[in-house]
Amino acid sequence: MTRYRAEVVGSLLRPSYLKQARLDLAADRISVKQFKQIEDRAVDEAIALQQESGLDVVTDGEMRRSGSSGPLTDYVEGFEAIGLETFPWRAPGPKETQLPVPLTVTGKLRRRRSLAAEEFIYARARAQLPLKVTLPSPLMLALTWSPVFSADAYPEPFELFADAAMILRDEIAELVSLGCEYIQVDAPELAILVDSATRSHVYEARGISSERLLLEGVDLLNALADVSGVTFALHLCRGNHAGQWMSAGGYETISKRVFGGLAHYSVLLLEYDDGRSGTFEPLVDVPRDKTVVLGLLSTKSDDLEPFEMLTDRLEQAAHYFPREQLALSTQCGFASVAAGNPLRQESQRAKLKLVADVAHHLFA
């Protein structure tokens, strides 16, 4: 397996012209063809930015998505815009923001079209570096399950996760048939479990067992990656919504089950940008056949991390996991929702270049 030292998580800030085009399409001011041409331009610029920054692997920036869970919610039937369920999101300071979940599962899931084939086929023809496709975890749909509104279709939430996993397995098979060799599954719902208060409010109070997420959920994720000839990565963060997060706490509460239960994943991308992520000690629970990508740079603010601080933290992590199997990335995507995080395009460029500079300096 090729080890990429300077990684990217997935999404990049949408340019203002793309945001406007999405509004124009919804208002019938432009055609679908015109919108697709604008999307193409945004993807071209996203790939160029990553390549110019010196990264070892690129994505299409997720420019065609409404958000990180978009592949499952945009192209799959079974959702309605009810918007009654709200969850707490946090930013620096004591204040919490209650944000509604835009879509709720009300019917059986049915895939209407490919989730990511368009993204891969277009980017494949333009990327000069290895290309990675990101997909949402089926467990991300936990936020869309309601014991009231979803019960007719899915009285049991793990039935929903199983149907979503079946759709994702079909998608992975299609991507592989098109030549995709690197697939990342984004699973923030697992890292959310590290925070007992959030775990109780988001999962337990709604009838979703945290213990089952760590047992059956991890097994479901592992089964997705049971495909030969493909590098699979799993990304863990504690929520990323316009610079806000959902939980805080170290990985030690989930590390043994999660890190040890993902035999089919060769890469773990772990959020580690500030004190919310805890210490590096849980890295001892990562099997020694994996690459650990440390997300040491924040995508939530313009502040640029010092070069020496990043190299020092990588060396600290090497006390718990082999240095030769470490890599570097940002802590999450820059735009898990289309609005993006509160930082400038210039800061995004600087952070991507810093990832590459530090990784290639340390792992040359």
CATH class: Alpha Beta
Kindly report the CATH topology: TIM Barrel
End-to-end C-alpha gap: 18 Å
Please tell me what the overall shape is. Answer: globular
> What structural class should be given to the helix and strand makeup?
alpha/beta
* SSE order: HHHEEEEHEHEHHHEHEEHEH
Our Rg estimate from Cα atoms comes to 19 Å
What is the average of the pLDDT values? 94
Provide a count of the helices.
11
CATH architecture: Alpha-Beta Barrel
Helix content: 25-40%
Strand tally, please? 10
Percent of residues in beta strands?
15-25%
Low-confidence stretches: none
Q: Can you characterise this structure?
A:
With 364 residues, the protein is of the alpha/beta class. It has a single domain (16-362), classed as TIM Barrel (Alpha-Beta Barrel). The protein is built from eleven helices and ten strands. A six-stranded parallel β-sheet has the order 5-6-7-8-9-10. Helix 9 (255-260) links the parallel strand 7 and strand 8 (267-271). Helix 1 (16-26) packs antiparallel against helix 2. The radius of gyration is 19 Å and the shape is globular. The mean pLDDT is 94.
